[in-house]
Design brief:
The complex is a heterodimer of chains A (252) and B (608). Chain A has one domain: P-loop containing nucleotide triphosphate hydrolases (Rossmann fold), CATH 3.40.50. In chain A, helix 3 packs across helix 4. In chain A, a hairpin with a 2-residue loop joins strand 4 and strand 5. In chain A, 37% of the residues lie in helices and 26% in strands. In chain B, 74% of the residues lie in helices and 6% in strands. Classes of the chains: A alpha/beta (252), B alpha+beta (608). The complex binds adenosine-5'-triphosphate and magnesium ion.
């Protein structure tokens, strides 16, 4: 393993269903790696195992077999507290269903990862403000999640995932609920983080335009990596065309 | 069809229903337990000597009714919150709101009535069980108390039926008034509470005044009489509620404004957990503190009564018991007593003459208590008289009625030396005075049993003096006082246990009823990388607020409330307060730990 790899996934399998239940294999022998500072898109039909994969990568769930190394550490072997700290410090996760705490205001939701790391209250405020401004939600910071729109929720969730400047960002359809303008803003923010701060990104998306921000795209089908697209030196619009074509071949 | 759907919704939240249902059962059972005493005037008359007890029970009825009301309101809002989403969904899919209204009406009423009936059955058994337990364990003498008491059953049914009828109507109206969208989102709504500083200040001042009036009334009950009880009731309840309402919100807000506190770990989350449920919290804190005061108060009064019974009897005699019987069973029982001090007098009876030993009279000390509770010995004539009386009554207790000495005046006492004594041709008897190690407090049951074995009931027609001598030991006085005070002791502990159960039930209900929502929140916290220990601490803090505040307030209420009993019955009550309070607080703390572990096991899922 070279030092440049931030994520290395080795032959992971995931089988759902307990002993007496019906088994379902959601992931089959997944094997890939991510370079430091890489922006990876993950695409695939609904139910193909994308969320499952992200859950494994972010220690929310454990693979049935196989290993996952992040920063050369086997995260399938972590203890509970180490996992929590890993999630709290190293990664940011934008969930498909937001996962905002409805009894905290947006500002408080975003501040949570910082509070958990005992960042001083003086530093917390400007950090929250900065990321909120970037994502265009500084007007709604004092509202509660039940009082804002779905897209706004998604941006709050994104702010919370980014506020502590994680070294890897996982996004599960982070632009799913956004209009094209807000989607672009979020994607630009992600790209900026990726380019300027070398944050590695893994993003699940159904949207070819969003996917075109990535440098590499993994296509998942029935729990397996079916195909891989590399952007290389192509422009984003060329890459976009290529993605559309690939998706087209999938549909046939 | 709709009914089936509703039923399936019920199944899917079976655990929550179980919590709700058992909470309601406990409430109606306790309500019945209390009424079984308070609606039983004969029992009260027979077992208490003090007239204020009637008023005390009416006040108790009212307080318990209030507490039950709060509980039911709370339980009902829990029920409603469980059902809102389901019913909102049905309505969105086209069910008529009147149909849904009927459904929730029937559901509420049915649940309520079922819980009341089951609660009553449990209440009857619990009442009998607790009564039996107390009577046998504390050797109380209680007359005319049985678990099943019809008036109490009817009152409980009527009260709960009315409450649930209102709850059902309320739910019906509420479901038809609330817009579908808010029904669907009911669980996510933040509580907006706009605080008007003037209003809060007014609440604070009013609360303070009410509390002062309440405390003042309890302190001056002798002047205010019955009015004092009413003033105390209203003052304390209203005062507690308003103070909690005003202060609690302010404290939460101050905490929320301090960034240092707020942005540390999960503090913010914890504070908001409380803030979100603040109306609920205010009511529950009020109710719990009053229940706390009543429970500790009842147990303290009861235990002081008990202590009073002990000290009063100990102050009146030096020896615990007198043994005069010659039965083998008595001898065996005496051999088992831990004896600290004893004196034995021998005597013989021939015709109307009692022969006793002069050297025993002169050398054996017969000890007594002085009015200021010091130990001395009888001396001179009084020594002789008391030995005379002792022997006479011992003899009287041993013999059938026709051979008795009606009074010590009928008897000729002869004190002779040992050799003369030995020549008198009748059987020798003895009477032994015993002081045990630990006295009646440690050996109560064996001393009581001994008395029964000896059959120490003083025979009729004896003068008081003679009776008092054999019957005049500590255990006999104890039995006398105990029969007077048993009623109070019984009521105290009985009600203490009832209130305690109610307290425990309200707290656990409060905690479990939020668990469903909290579980999701803690799952989210877990996902964004919160350590388990940090979440555990947050849980501990949130629960601590719920336990500590009412304990402090309740203790204060109780200390002022004891004044009522100090001036009417038990002057030294404040001297005996430490033990019951310590026991109670220990139990309370253990209960805190228990709820904490239960709650944590529900909301924090285990990870492999
Ligand atoms: N906890 C679970 N237990 C059992 N099966 C599960 C569980 N979670 C997911 N699955 C199954 O695993 C498969 C993959 O699910 P996953 O959520 O990863 O899909 P996805 O690719 O994220 O889909 P989408 O694009 O719709 O979000 C699906 O068939 C799903 O039904
Ligand atoms: Mg998914």
């Amino acid at each position: 393993m070279t030092n440049n790899q931030i994520v290395k996934v080795q032959n992971i399998n995931k089988i759902y269903g307990k002993r007496n239940e019906k088994k379902y294999q959601a992931l089959k022998d997944i094997d890939f790696s991510v370079q430091k500072g890489e922006f990876i898109g993950i695409m695939g039909a609904s139910g193909s195992g994308k969320t499952t994969l992200l859950n494994m990568l972010s220690t929310l769930d454990k693979p049935t077999s196989g290993h996952i190394y992040i920063n050369e550490q086997d995260i399938t072997q972590l203890k509970k507290n180490q996992m929590a700290d890993f999630r709290g410090r190293e990664i940011g996760f934008i969930f498909q269903d937001f996962n905002l705490l409805e009894n905290l205001s947006c500002r408080e939701n975003i501040a949570l990862p910082l509070s958990l790391q005992n960042v001083s209250s003086k530093e917390i405020k400007p950090k929250v403000q900065k990321i909120a401004t970037k994502l265009g939600i500084s007007q709604i910071l004092d509202k509660y999640p039940s009082e804002i729109s779905g897209g706004q929720k998604q941006r709050v969730a994104a702010s919370r995932a980014l506020v502590h400047e994680p070294s890897i960002l996982f996004g599960d359809e982070p632009t799913g609920a956004l209009d094209s303008k807000s989607a672009k803003e979020l994607l630009n923010t992600m790209q900026q983080l990726n380019e300027e701060d070398a944050v590695s990104i893994l993003m699940v998306t159904h949207d070819a335009a969003a996917a075109s921000y990535a440098q590499r795209i993994l296509f998942i089908k029935d729990g397996e990596i079916h195909r891989e697209l590399k952007r290389g030196q192509n422009s984003r619009s060329d890459f976009y065309q290529e993605i559309i074509q690939t998706l087209g071949t999938y549909e046939q | 069809m709709l009914f089936k759907l509703a039923l399936s919704g019920l199944k899917s939240r079976f655990k929550d229903y179980l919590v709700l249902f058992s909470g309601l059962i406990v409430t109606s059972a306790i309500f019945y337990m209390f009424l079984s005493l308070s609606t039983n005037p004969e029992f009260l008359k027979q077992n208490t000597t003090i007239s204020i007890i009637g008023v005390v029970f009416i006040i108790g009825d009212i307080l318990l009714a209030l507490i039950t009301l709060v509980y039911i309101i709370y339980a009902n809002s829990f029920l409603l919150s469980m059902r809102q989403r389901d019913y909102g969904l049905f309505m969105m899919l086209g069910a008529k709101s009147s149909k849904i209204g009927n459904l929730i009406f029937v559901e509420t009423l049915f649940l309520g009535i079922l819980a009341t009936v089951v609660g009553l059955v449990i209440g009857v058994f619990a009442t009998q069980g607790v009564a039996n337990l107390l009577i046998s364990n504390l050797s109380l003498s209680i007359n005319g108390f049985i678990g099943f008491h019809m008036p109490a059953i009817l009152w409980t049914m009527a009260f709960f039926f009315v409450l649930f009828l209102f709850a059902a109507l309320f739910n019906r109206i509420k479901l038809s008034v609330i817009p579908i969208l808010s029904l669907l989102k009911s669980n996510e709504k933040p509580v907006k509470y706009r605080r008007n500083p003037v209003l809060i200040f007014a609440q604070f001042i009013l609360g303070l005044i009410a509390l002062i009036v309440g405390y003042y009334a309890m302190n001056n009950i002798m002047i205010l009489k019955t009015d004092g009880f009413w003033l105390a009731l209203i003052g304390v309840v209203v005062g507690t509620f308003l103070l909690f309402k005003s202060i609690f919100g302010v404290v939460i807000d101050i905490l929320r404004q301090s960034n240092r506190v707020k942005y540390r770990n999960l503090n913010n989350f914890t504070i908001n957990q409380i803030k979100f449920r603040i109306t609920e919290y205010t009511r529950i804190l009020t109710v719990v503190s009053i229940l706390f005061a009543m429970a500790v108060g009842a147990i303290t009064v009861s235990l002081s009564m008990r202590t009073l019974t002990f000290t009063n009897s100990e102050n009146l005699a030096y020896y615990d018991t007198a043994i005069y019987s010659e039965k083998d069973s008595v001898k065996k029982a005496v051999a088992k007593l831990p004896i600290e001090d004893e004196t034995t007098f021998h005597y013989k009876v021939e015709g109307s003459t009692i022969y006793a030993l002069s050297d025993e009279l002169n050398t054996l000390p017969m000890k007594m208590k002085t009015p200021d509770n010091k130990v001395t010995s009888y001396s001179g004539d009084s020594s002789k008289n008391s030995v005379n009386d002792l022997i006479t009554s011992a003899y009287n207790n041993l013999h059938p009625k026709n051979e008795l000495f009606a009074s010590s005046k009928d008897v000729n006492y002869q004190y002779v030396n040992r050799s003369t004594f030995n020549t008198i041709p009748v059987t020798q008897h003895s009477v032994q005075l015993i002081k045990t190690v630990g006295g009646i407090r440690e050996n109560l049951s064996s001393l009581n049993a001994l008395n029964q074995l000896q059959n120490a009931t003083p025979s009729l027609g004896l003068d008081v003096m003679t009776q008092a001598q054999v019957g005049g030991q500590v255990i006999n006085y104890y039995q006398l006082f105990n029969s007077t005070y048993s009623g109070f002791q019984f009521m105290g502990i009985f009600l203490g246990v009832a209130f305690l159960t109610m307290l425990a039930s309200i707290l656990i209900f409060k905690i479990l009823s939020g668990a469903h929502q909290d579980k999701k929140r803690y799952e989210m916290l877990d996902k964004i990388g919160t350590r388990r220990s940090v979440m555990t601490r947050s849980i501990a803090k949130e629960l601590a607020v719920l336990f500590v505040l009412p304990a402090l307030v309740g203790l204060t209420h109780m200390l002022f409330g004891l004044k009522l009993f100090q001036v009417t019955m038990i002057p030294q009550i404040y001297g005996t307060v430490v033990v019951p309070v310590t026991i109670f607080l220990t139990l309370y703390f253990l209960y805190y730990l228990l709820t904490f572990f239960i709650y944590r096991s529900i909301v924090l899922r285990k990870r492999k």
